[in-house]
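Model it.
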Amino acid sequence: MKRYLHLKVVQIGRKVKRSVFLNKYFPNFKDPVYWAGNRMSFARAGFIGMLSMMLPVPFQMLLGSILAYYLRANIPLATALAWITNPLTMGPIWYGGYRFGTWLLNTPSSEEVMTHAQNIPLASAQWFSEIFPTIWQPFFLGNLILGIIFGSILYVLIGYFPYIKRFFAWLFVHHQQP
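Modeled.
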């Protein structure tokens, strides 16, 4: 099984490297920084992946991959982090972003909006004309800000992990009680 998987990965890699589209529009696609990378490439990918994960837009993986290419980040990590929001997790994640946005903007909470929307079918023309205008700003702003916050945290953790580790080791050694 291991040999089979390795063979498939190699075959996919060859197809990607020979792709006319990728070589035409993304000429540096074969650069090792996108696939193996270094600590800062992984840190940038962590930021991009978390930001893409939180954005309530379609094609988050594609967005993460394109941003990773242009910002010279690790493409597989950025793409994989965008997978965190999937059909099972996107509801709770984006609802949390919406609640954060209502807190930031001090707008009515979802309970107040839902009492008004009880008899309106979800995603109907009436819903988009009456309900969506009241929720879109906190929804997008909350998710965008949380994506920036989570991405920044991951960027610092990945990019500066050796320094953080040394700091805590120093702190632990120098502040022990005799």
